[in-house]
Amino acid sequence: MNIKNLSLFNECFGSVEGETKNLDNAHLSQLQSSSLNFESKVPQLEYMCLMMENMVLMKKLKGNVYAGFQKFSHAKNVLDRFQAMTEYSNVYIFGEEGVPMDSSDGIHYIPLPPNSELIREWFLVIDAPNFKSMMVAYDLDGFGVHKVKESRNFKGAKSSSPRVVEHAASLLAPHTSSLQGTA
Questions:
Q1: Is the pTM for the entire model greater than 0.90?
Q2: Which of 5, 7, 59, 69 could crosslink 74 through cysteines, CB 3.0-4.6 Å?
């Protein structure tokens, strides 16, 4: 699938069973759930991703980590964590260009074309032989709507189903193939 038309949200949201839960005031145990459909704001997405990232770092997972931050500039605050993951995994960050990224930091940056579907999505896909997890969320508001970026509203899905994670990884992997083995 052409990267401009690729939407992990559209491809994966319906694969996760259950009703959509509002996570705005959710207990941490809900955010740690291995499978759910949700509506949330930025802090809840950050927490879900942090827990997934910790698995890669603590278990030293060897595999592929695909992350989409909408814009490369949104990844700046967590780059040290993703750089640490490159010791074990291939790390790919998708995003709209706008700020220069250090191509020597071990992370593979995949710039998204203008008006790409993925620019409206925040995702993290961890595809390792002994751990599979995926979170994808669609930005319902877009940029510039809220004065406080953390107030943006998202709708998404989280899953640890190997079938769902492998499907998400199979959609992203073709866009990284020219970067394989360059780390």
A1: yes
A2: 69
